[in-house]
Amino acid sequence: MADSAGFESAIGVIAISACLGAVILAIFVFVSLRNNSQDENSASDSKEKREKSKEKPQNGTKSAKGKKRNQSQGVMNHRRQFAALKGHTSEVLDLDFSLNGKLLASTSQDRTVRLWSVKDFKEKEHKYVRANVDFDHATKVNFSPDSRAFITALANGNTIRVFKVSKKKDGTGTTITGEFDFPVRHKAEIINIAVASNGKYIMSCSKDTTIIIWDLKGEVLATLDTLQINNSFSALSPCGRFVASAGFTPDVKLWEVKFNKSDAFEQVSRAMELKGHTAGIYHFSFSADSKRMATVSKDSTWRVWDIDVEYTKQQDPALLMTGIYDASCNMYDNMLISISPDAYVTAISMGRCIALFNTENGNLEELLQDVHGDTITAIAWHPSSRYLASAGGSDRQIRVWHNAAGIKVQIDDLKGKLVRAKSDTIRGRIEQQILEASASLDKLNV
């Protein structure tokens, strides 16, 4: 019995020792695994941080040309940039400055039209008034001559919607209301719209060969067939006298919209054509005085034309200048052209770049490279010629640029006038203008 009791006691001791050993071993394995897991997580975190550090955009990183680049979007932060207007949540499609120079309108796929206050461009925060485009989005926008209304082209509705701009009753700000839609008349997508500066009619152009002239209430006055296979662009002259279109052919056609002395619509008649390009026209622009036009073509040239001619006597527009652009910049097969209101420079957008050319001699004055993250969708001059606004696709921003190139050309022009001045009074006035323009340029070059 004693031996049996001793044996059982020994077995108990062994069992207890075995249990303690197993617990200790389990604790050791758990701690080891935990430490290994922490080491692996730490290594993983460090690797992730290193990868993020490599990917993280370095604001202020300079390219070989000394320009700051936003590496995440490949967009340069140019010294000519005056403002970057942020607010749209989708691609910005079109821009238009009001004739009084106080507002900039922008349309977007985010189903809004926004009116930006020009006086706030110099501020850090840029104010805007937002108008919703219910159940649709606007592709084009154009102010009325008095800046109290604007029209938009609707993407899905494929017609024109009129908006009214007014002061709030309490005088605290601006309000926008959608007034009415024009009846649907176009069978193909509308590619441009405009209100005549004389306030007598509205133009809309679609991708097929159709241009419609409307009265302000949405009644059709005339329908034109451009006979160009398709329309690539159409616009009204600033004087409100001409409607022009470009398309598949290498020409631009102009019609005169006629009203009688009682302001009643009479007819639309062929006026003249711009002939000379050897390939299709991308885009064109009128000068502010409607005496000149600029065209840009797939033939790698842009041209300036004198349209102040006696077309009723069969006089053709005169070619004033032919310029050449670098076709390698135009990766997206889309170009826009616009003469500055003072006519000193002509802006041409090529893909993501904007080139500013001397309108008189065709020389490239300045090239703004990689100004947007995607192809430029719109450019618009402020009526003062001091600023050029541009919109890009994917970055959803509007960028406003100082027109330093225009000031340079203005100074050169004034110096030429100074040499030709015949009186001390005129010379003194020109010298003062040169001093003021030089001072403005110096501020931009600081």
Automatic annotation (TrEMBL):
An annotated GO BP: endoplasmic reticulum unfolded protein response
Biased composition (Basic and acidic residues): 45-57
Renumbered residue ranges of the record's region Disordered: 38-75
SMART domains from the UniProt entry: WD40
Transmembrane segments: 12-33
Record keywords, A-Z: Membrane, Repeat, Transmembrane, Transmembrane helix, WD repeat
Pfam family, one: WD40
Keyword Transmembrane: yes
GO cellular component, one term: endoplasmic reticulum
SUPFAM superfamilies documented for this protein: WD40 repeat-like (SSF50978)
Keyword Membrane included in the entry's annotation: yes
Per-repeat ranges for WD: 85-126, 183-217, 274-308, 369-401
PANTHER family hit by this protein: TRANSDUCIN BETA-LIKE PROTEIN 2
Full protein name: Transducin beta-like protein 2
Organismal lineage: Eukaryota, Metazoa, Cnidaria, Anthozoa, Hexacorallia
